[in-house]
Design a protein that fits this description.
It contains three helices and five strands; from the N terminus they run αααβββββ. It is an alpha+beta fold. It has two domains: about 80 residues, no CATH class; about 50 residues. α2 runs antiparallel to α3.
Length: about 150
């Protein structure tokens, strides 16, 4: 027995209208609909699919298992992404701490001038490390060069 996965033109038009109305409501609320499908949205989609399935042709066990496997994979990728973000943040902090006491150069995005100074401290701003050079906090990604500080008399 072959399962039909196509909608007749009237069903397709009704579904498109429903989706367009829902997206318009989300946009009016300020919700960004361009983001990836998250866990909550995926589960809601799956529950909606189960709720409105054709009783004469219900979702088969293997189809349900495949969708649950997809959900499990999505959950694992989400956890892995979170872990990778933590590793990257830790690496950035480590790189920043290695610049302590060193002279750095950076390009000021506003004035387009190169600046130079010795990193006196590393401070966290919004959980991101910033290099304190004099009284300025510099984003480590803006650093163009790192040098050993000049010794007195050089």
């Amino acid at each position: 027995m072959e399962i039909s996965t196509t909608l007749d033109p009237a069903q397709l038009a009704a579904t498109r209208r429903h989706v367009d109305m829902h997206n318009a409501e989300l946009k009016a609320k300020g919700v960004n609909t361009e983001k990836d499908l998250g866990q909550d949205k995926y589960l809601k989609l799956l529950v909606t699919q189960l709720r409105y399935q054709d009783p004469q042709n219900p979702l088969q066990n293997h189809e349900f298992a495949a969708q649950m496997a997809q959900f499990s994979a999505l959950e694992q990728m989400t956890k892995m992404n979170s872990s990778m973000e933590k590793v990257i943040a830790s690496a950035r902090a480590g790189e920043s701490y290695n610049m302590l006491g060193k002279e750095v150069t950076w390009l000021d995005a506003d004035t387009k001038e190169m600046h130079r100074g010795v990193v006196k401290a590393v401070v966290l701003a919004d959980n991101r490390p910033m290099l304190r050079v004099g009284n300025i906090d510099v984003d480590p990604s803006k650093i163009a060069g790192v040098h050993l500080p000049k010794a007195a008399g050089e």
